[in-house]
Design goal:
Blueprint: E1 2-3, H1 10-28, H2 47-66, H3 77-81, H4 105-124, H5 131-160, E2 186-189, E3 192-196, E4 203-204, E5 211-215, E6 218-221, H6 227-235, H7 247-256, E7 264-267, E8 270-275, E9 278-281, H8 293-302, H9 310-317, E10 351-357, E11 383-386, E12 403-405, E13 414-415, E14 419-421
Helix pairs in contact: 1-4, 1-5, 2-4, 2-5
Length: about 425
């Protein structure tokens, strides 16, 4: 599931654990008990389930194998809060997670507190000769939880979107409008034989092995596609032009009635969007998001460009600065680029669709055991997204990260960047 360096600072692992767990608790503190149990679709999970599942992960993969005299907090929790780890035991059906009214939110928070104390004690006084293994598992659990922090936000936003009260996850502060450029300057890259994939530091197993591949010369837009550009696509009939769309995408768009990005609505000639800060006017200079791969591909064709491959994206990102807001800033929406030039917005604003299928790199082998189920068995019918969003933890962002979703899914914080052959 993950690869890490052999040497770690024990204090930094303990600090990462505390920081990660506290951030999840801070997010949950903004929700009511009623908010925490709702499940708005099969792809989403209740906030309470995210809180319990990430705790089950630490209990199952850290405490169970390493804690002396380990006893489960509640043996029934394993069935309730396992996700898809077949080798870890039975699982409650995913579409039915919203039916888990018990344990209560208060009991889940108590579960978290108990497991936190036990993991912290294990980190402080590990069994002889097991420190490195324990720290590796804790680090892995933290990155797993950071993924679920972002999912918690995307899932609660989807649930809130059905509420006629239009609740805001955080107060709807005014949009900080910046002077924005009107053109996306383009950057040229020579390509050639390049090294792709992670080699050092924490990374998931699907980010490696690092290997050589050939990338033809290409050009990439310096910034992300904006909401204003997407409005131009809408007004030019982009959602009605079948020739722009992949066949599966066209039928998906027709079946679901897509006419704009998810959560957009038009009122009195103005486009509005529902987000984590409630309903606000669409910021035309900020990156568009909540679009599917199918929509991103159709937009690229309309613009006379294409989506980059994940290899092109990684080549371009090698020297880029992570200038986004990330979840750490709690801005919780993408920001316009301002008047900056050059390659920017590579991470910390929205995930970026690539045209690459989520497939194994040459020489890839999943790790042995239940943790090996994390990425490998999902290498089919999904596309890779690169970068990171405003809901991603900065600790979790890296240029080799391979996020992946099905091409029709659009409840995630996903946008796009254009590319073309040189």
């Amino acid at each position: 599931m993950a690869q890490t360096d052999s040497q770690r600072d024990p204090a930094s692992v303990a600090a990462l654990f505390e920081r990660t767990r506290n951030r999840t608790s801070d997010l949950a503190a903004r929700l009511t008990p009623e908010d925490m149990v709702v499940q708005s679709m099969e792809d989403a999970s209740p906030a309470k389930w995210h809180l319990a599942h990430t705790t089950w992960f630490f209990e199952t993969f850290v405490l169970a194998p390493f804690e002396s005299g380990y006893k489960p907090h509640d043996p029934k929790f394993a069935h309730c809060f396992n996700s898809y780890y077949v080798q870890a035991g039975s699982r409650h059906a995913r579409p039915m997670r919203g039916m888990l009214t018990r344990p209560s939110a208060a009991e889940v928070l108590h579960y978290r507190a108990v497991v936190d104390a036990r993991v912290s004690a294990l980190l402080a006084d590990p069994p002889h000769g097991r420190r490195a293994e324990i720290e590796e598992r804790v680090e892995l659990g933290c990155h797993h939880e950071m993924q679920h922090q972002e999912l918690l936000l995307s899932d609660i936003l989807h649930a809130f979107s059905f509420n006629p009260l239009e609740p805001a996850f955080v107060p709807p502060a005014p949009i900080a409008m910046e002077a924005a450029e009107t053109e996306a300057d383009w950057m040229s890259f020579d390509g050639g034989m390049v090294s792709i994939g992670a080699e050092k530091g924490f990374h998931f197993d699907n980010e490696g092995p690092r290997h050589q591949t050939y990338v033809p010369p290409f050009r990439m837009a310096g910034r992300l596609v904006t909401a204003g550009e997407w409005i131009a696509f809408i007004e030019d009939g982009g959602y009605d032009a079948e020739t722009l769309w992949l066949s599966d995408g066209w039928y998906a768009a027709r079946a679901a009635g897509w006419r704009a990005p998810l959560y957009w609505r038009q009122h009195d000639g103005e486009w509005w969007t529902f987000g984590l800060r409630g309903t606000q006017l669409v910021d035309r200079d900020a990156p568009v998001h909540h679009v599917s791969y199918y929509e991103a591909d159709a937009f690229a064709r309309w613009a006379g460009k294409r989506l980059p491959s994940e290899f092109e994206w990684e080549v371009a990102a090698a020297d880029a600065v992570d200038d986004g807001s990330f979840i750490d800033a709690m801005y919780l929406r993408p920001r316009p680029t301002g008047v900056r030039t050059g390659l920017r917005q590579m991470a910390g604003e929205v995930w970026q669709w690539t045209r690459s299928s989520h497939a194994a790199f040459p020489g890839y082998k999943p790790v042995v055991g239940a943790l090996g189920e994390y990425n490998g068995k999902f290498m089919v019918n999904q596309y890779v997204l690169r970068g990171a969003s405003f809901a991603t933890a900065r600790d979790h962002a890296r240029h080799t990260y391979r996020n992946f979703f099905h091409p029709h899914q659009r409840w995630q914080f996903a946008g796009l960047r254009l590319a073309e052959d040189a």
